[in-house]
Design goal:
globular, 70% helix, single chain, mainly alpha, 6% strand, two-stranded antiparallel ribbon
């Protein structure tokens, strides 16, 4: 039986507990419009890709060629930038909302 993307994401998060904890602490795990767990700023497919790349990048032990590793590291950095941008945007939006609520208070 084929696994859904949601099941793959949940399974990857279960395997990478430290990464999952970091994502939870950063409030980066969200549900998209279809109710699929994703990382803020990423699509479900990008979330799965990031969850697969992250441990490979952190534990590079020669399993990939130098060319493959460089490509994977570059893609990981692109996805991480998207996450960071989304988290910054969320923080700015939260602060804007808080300031507006305080002013209305």
């Amino acid at each position: 039986m084929a696994h859904t993307l949601e099941q793959k994401i949940i399974g990857l998060l279960e395997q990478e507990t430290a990464l999952r904890q970091w994502l939870e602490q950063m409030r980066a795990l969200i549900k998209d419009s279809r109710g699929v767990t994703v990382i803020a700023g990423l699509s479900p497919a990008e979330t799965e890709e990031f969850l697969r790349l992250d441990p490979q990048i952190r534990a590079h032990r020669g399993a990939m060629s130098q060319t493959e590793f460089e490509a994977a590291r570059e893609r990981h950095a692109e996805l991480k930038d998207k996450i960071d941008t989304a988290l910054q945007d969320n923080a700015i939006e939260s602060l804007s909302d808080w300031g507006g609520a305080a002013a209305r208070g």
